[in-house]
Protein: Secreted protein
Organism: Streptomyces spororaveus
Amino acid sequence: MLTTARRGWISASLAACGALLAVAAWTALPDGGAGQRAPARALETAELDLLHTAGELLVQDCMRARGFSYWPVPRVPHPDFRDFPYGVDDVDWARRQGFGRRIERQLDEEAASGPRGRYRSGLSAERLEALGAALMGPDAKGLEVRNPGGGTLSHSDRGCIAASWRQLYGDARLWYGSSETVKQLGATRTGRVNQDPAFRTALAGWSECVGRRGFPAEHPVRQRDEQLARTGPEAEAQDVPMAVAQAECARSTGLADTAQDLHRRYSAMIRAENGAAFDAMRRLQAAALPTARDVVARHPGG
């Protein structure tokens, strides 16, 4: 649900703290069998928040040392932000937010007119390029991992983001490899859910339901994306009634329950298939908690 105006800072923030936002949706691994080392636990939300805050503060310190200002980005970009990978299924949220257009607009305005936007707008093209190199590294080289969806993903090992990983997790290469793998597996899970016969059967019932209510669509995510792409008062006036119809039909037809059940099932399957990545990431996270507490403690108000 993030738009272009915020993409630079938000994506840099997510990169700085690895997959902390994405992995919060993964539940704990099952216990290991007899004679096996117990798998690492999934961190609690408060612990993920701590790691994110510490990572952002380390990036801020690094950028300041390189002559640039940096404003830490929150792990959750807006108090009402929600991610609906299979379409909006919360009726109350839909009544308040529609498809989240107001949240998008607020975040876009903040990105443009807030301190980050004002700072960037005051930099020359050369300084902007230097800022990007200081933050992300001069090129995407040094850290590399195979993308579970195909191909290879890479990241610089020389910018402030990589420096924060080394300070917090010790092994930047292992952290990037494991956390980026887990992050990318979210798309694998969503794809499997969407292709499951049970989901597709429920989807047909949902499509019939919203069609009867005057909002014909084949898939809730496409319906949401197409609606948010429309602009103007007439389009925006349809946001709430369309989103409410989407959510109510997801509930009444069983699409929401089917998606949630499949989401849990494929989560367990994918964790089992990629246990090494999950275990490595979680062990690094748990080991980083004392360092994160120290970092936050020495940054009053951090």
Summary: The beta strands are 142-146, 152-156. Residues 172-195 form the longest helix (24 residues).
